[in-house]
Amino acid sequence: MGNGSELGEFLRVRRAALQPEDVGLRNYGVRRVPGLRREELAMLAGVSNTYYTRLEQGLSTNASEAVIEAIAQALNLTADERTHLLNLARPGKAKRRGPSRPDRVRPGTLRLINSMAGTPAVVLGRRSEVLAWNTLGHKLVAGHLDFDSPNVPAARPNMTRLLFLDGHTRALYSSWQEEAARAVSSLRLLAGRSPDDAELTALVGELTLKSPEFAKLWARHPVQNCMSGVKLMRHPEVGVLELNFEVLAQPDESGHRVLMYAADEGSAAAAALQLLGSKLPGPDVTAALPSSTLRRA
After folding, report:
1. Is the pLDDT of residue 292 over 60?
2. Helix axes 268-278, 135-142, angle to 10 degrees
3. Are 226 and 185 in contact (CB under 8 A)?
4. Cβ-Cβ contacts under 8 Å for 143 (sequence gap 6 or more)
5. Predicted structure pTM score
6. In whole angstroms, what separates CA 199 from the centre of its chain?
7. More confident residue, 277 or 290
């Protein structure tokens, strides 16, 4: 996922989505291709057509912040899309990486989610791989998988992969298309931040090959930082659930996030969660911690 080509694709997709009347221009006749012409976008952004063309061709990745902001404004980008454009247009220097080591959930984070017995919680790594979950979180989102699978890096579930390639997970979401679009939007934002992440590139490649739906969504370049909202679920044991979700990003550079679910007080979803929780054994705070982690803690 070279940033030059990604930048060009993003600009072309966003330019094609705009009609002249959307940006206050007059439309003269039938257009051979949809959307604004390059020269129109360049004029709106106040840059030369030659320079803008170089950006779309991936030949320039050092645009000034003022130019990026002008292009973002001309394209009517959202705040998340502007951030993504900045990441693509002005990539940071590639970091020298040593041998890849399996990521681990922090012991304190694991204790925290296990202390919330009535709240489903999942700890995600930077690529949406599951690093840990509490018993209710596991039962809610992936009860058909082994609870201990996050402890084995090679067998670790990935929430985005499950959404597109796992039939049980697909059936879990009543509004699967909305959930899929949200997942791809988040993955696009991450890809812009980490263009040199080989594992992320491999994940995108795998999903593009195995899921036509993912490939179609990915080609649209959706971008959104999905930190809260509502998920509509159809759980095989307790039926329909409408749950609020919040994503808490840890303040270090790990990229770890804690995904938590909650139902409105007194709602049918709250009763369903309580019923689901009543079927579970009591939580064991240290059950999912490797012995080496416990010694370090």
Report:
1. no
2. 110
3. yes
4. 236, 237
5. 0.80
6. 15
7. 277
